[in-house]
Automatic annotation (TrEMBL), chain A:
<feature type="region of interest" description="Disordered">
    <location>
        <begin position="209"/>
        <end position="236"/>
    </location>
</feature>
<protein>
    <recommendedName>
        <fullName>Sugar phosphate isomerase</fullName>
    </recommendedName>
</protein>
<dbReference type="InterPro" id="IPR047715">
    <property type="entry name" value="EboA_dom"/>
</dbReference>
<feature type="compositionally biased region" description="Low complexity">
    <location>
        <begin position="218"/>
        <end position="228"/>
    </location>
</feature>
From TrEMBL, chain B:
<dbReference type="InterPro" id="IPR001130">
    <property type="entry name" value="TatD-like"/>
</dbReference>
<protein>
    <submittedName>
        <fullName>TatD family hydrolase</fullName>
    </submittedName>
</protein>
<dbReference type="Pfam" id="PF01026">
    <property type="entry name" value="TatD_DNase"/>
</dbReference>
<comment type="similarity">
    <text>Belongs to the metallo-dependent hydrolases superfamily.</text>
</comment>
<dbReference type="InterPro" id="IPR032466">
    <property type="entry name" value="Metal_Hydrolase"/>
</dbReference>
<dbReference type="GO" id="GO:0016788">
    <property type="term" value="F:hydrolase activity, acting on ester bonds"/>
</dbReference>
<keyword id="KW-0378">Hydrolase</keyword>
<dbReference type="GO" id="GO:0046872">
    <property type="term" value="F:metal ion binding"/>
</dbReference>
<dbReference type="InterPro" id="IPR012022">
    <property type="entry name" value="UCP005295"/>
</dbReference>
Length: 236, 288
């Protein structure tokens, strides 16, 4: 996503009135950055909120894109830019916070915005978690936090196909964590999300829990607990 | 049956309540900012609470097919604590948010000078931000509190049809009915009002400008009191259309004055709905 790409896509997705408002808002922000604080909350009402690409419900929304253009118009760099977007994130509702996260790859902030990504990953709001794991996290987030974020997606039902960093950032440790998660689910007789299988396949050497790791489970449950990674009857 | 609960403190409720409310017909609600059982002592704990009302709580409600809006204010009780008074300075950044459909709960608890000041200042915020106001009335010395409330509302210059005076009963409704303000009734298991008495009030005063809520909070309360009132109305001979007026069209008309009600998606996603192709609830309910 680049500002030009967003602008082009948005023209088809907004009313003329909305486009006019956004152009004016961007010009105001470019002239006087402080006005962004008053304009940011209004974007959904002025520009709309639907998916930017109707064929891609996993992707950006119209308000995400419009807010990103407002942020890209800020004539700020370095610490001043980080302070402004940090304030917009902290004082934002869920949609505003999501938009700040989406916009990060468009902004010259280096890895300075990682605290915002980490904040979003601490929430249980799937919209924020998914937005936090966009292109910016792909490029800047450390491996340990990225893996935890991916596992959180698996737990909360965010499809892994929505993460641009996968499969590129998958590694053996991530596959091990997924295998352990799948193992726990099967031991509980619960289903395992389909979208982790391709990652397990990428790392065939990953050690899946063996009989030794199963001691606690096998004493606590009946014989239906699988001691291998075969699907449990309930998943069949 | 479709129900809009115009005053309910969902922060205090469990997901079981959300499920039961949706099953009973509650598709939209407004959660007013108010005090919690434990008094707050710092501005920060207010801001986290407000952030929850425009962040986490609407997300939680949406998982059960219920559209969540809120009102934001410094409540009268905590307006008396000088450590909390600074909250007023933070309100202007919350009031323009999408989900904030009124300033509230404002009004009186003990009718102190500090409450006078916070009440008047927040009515002015409602005017500045073009929002309706949700006014709490005191539980002690209620009739005097209602008179004083109406005087302050009148003095503020806000249009009475943009104000709801809440927690009324058979006595205090008579003070408000001629004011032009909306009349709110909180139906509780054993205090304020019950559904049988509510039906009697509706018989006497009609359905115009009347809002019925469950208020359900951390005290003994029942988030299904809106539905139970609707059932009591039907049993008493009110028509389905009259029930719809009181329990859906009236709250929509009142909060619609904010220009910010969003009801199109009120019934989605429900319990079996999906988040971008996957069930939102796949892990959330069991693991969080």
């Amino acid at each position: 996503m680049t500002p030009d790409h967003l602008r082009t896509t948005l023209t088809d997705r907004m009313t003329e009135q909305g486009s006019k408002w956004l152009a004016g808002a961007c010009a105001s922000v470019a002239a006087e950055p402080g006005v962004v604080r008053g304009l940011f909350p209004l974007v959904g009402r002025r520009c709309g909120r639907g998916p930017l690409d109707p064929a891609d419900p996993h992707g950006w929304t119209v308000d995400d894109a419009a807010r990103s253009l407002l942020l890209a118009a800020l004539p700020l760099t370095g610490a001043a830019l980080l302070e402004e977007i940090g304030e917009l994130y902290r004082t934002g509702d869920a949609a505003e916070r999501r938009a700040v996260l989406r916009a990060l790859p468009l902004l010259p902030v280096g890895d300075g915005a990682l605290p915002l990504v980490r904040d979003a990953l601490r929430t249980n709001d799937t919209r924020l978690v998914a937005a936090a794991l966009g292109d910016y996290a792909t490029d800047h987030l450390d491996a340990e936090t990225y893996r935890q974020g991916v596992l959180k997606c698996v737990f909360t039902g965010i499809p892994l196909s929505a993460l641009p960093g996968l499969p590129g950032r998958a590694d053996a440790e991530m596959a091990r964590m997924m295998a352990a998660f799948a193992h726990e689910r099967r031991a509980a007789g619960r289903t395992v999300p389909d979208d982790i299988a391709p990652f397990l396949a990428l790392f065939p050497d990953v050690t899946v829990p063996g009989p030794r790791d199963l001691q606690d489970v096998s004493t606590a449950t009946t014989a239906t607990s699988s001691t291998t990674d075969r699907p449990s009857p309930r998943e069949a | 049956m479709r129900i809009f609960d115009p005053h309910i403190h969902m922060t205090s409720r469990t997901t079981d309540d959300y499920e039961a409310m949706h099953a009973a017909g509650v598709h939209a609600l407004v959660e007013p900012a108010f005090w919690l059982g434990q008094p707050r002592t710092s501005v920060g704990s207010f801001l986290d609470y407000f952030d929850s009302l425009i962040g986490w709580e609407p997300f939680r409600a949406a998982q059960f097919g219920i559209r969540h809006h809120c009102t934001i204010a410094l409540n009268p009780k905590e307006a008396n604590d000088p450590r909390c008074a600074e909250v007023l300075q933070h309100l202007p950044r919350y009031l323009p948010k999408d989900g904030v459909v009124a300033v509230g709960e404002i009004g009186y608890d003990s009718m102190t000078p500090e409450e006078d000041e916070a009440f008047a200042a927040q009515l002015q915020l409602a005017l500045t931000h073009d929002l309706p106001a949700l006014v709490h009335t005191p539980h002690r010395d209620k009739a005097a509190g209602v008179d004083r409330t109406l005087a302050v509302v009148k003095e503020s210059g806000i249009a009475p049809e943009r104000v709801v005076v809440d927690h009324l009963n058979e006595v205090t409704v008579r003070q408000v009915v001629g004011s032009g303000c909306w009349m709110g009734f909180s139906i509780y298991p054993d205090t304020k009002m019950d559904e049988r008495r509510m039906v009697a009030v509706l018989r006497e005063f009609g359905t115009e400008r009347i809002l019925v809520n469950s208020a359900a909070d951390w005290g003994r309360s029942d988030p299904l009191k809106t539905r139970k009132t609707a059932d009591a109305m039907l049993a008493a001979g009110f028509t389905a259309d009259e029930v719809d007026t009181v329990l859906w069209r009236n709250p929509v008309a009142f909060y619609g004055q904010s220009g910010k009600l969003e009801l199109e998606d009120s019934d989605a996603p429900g319990a079996d709905a999906t988040y971008e192709g996957n069930s939102v609830l796949r892990g959330v309910r069991a693991e969080v």
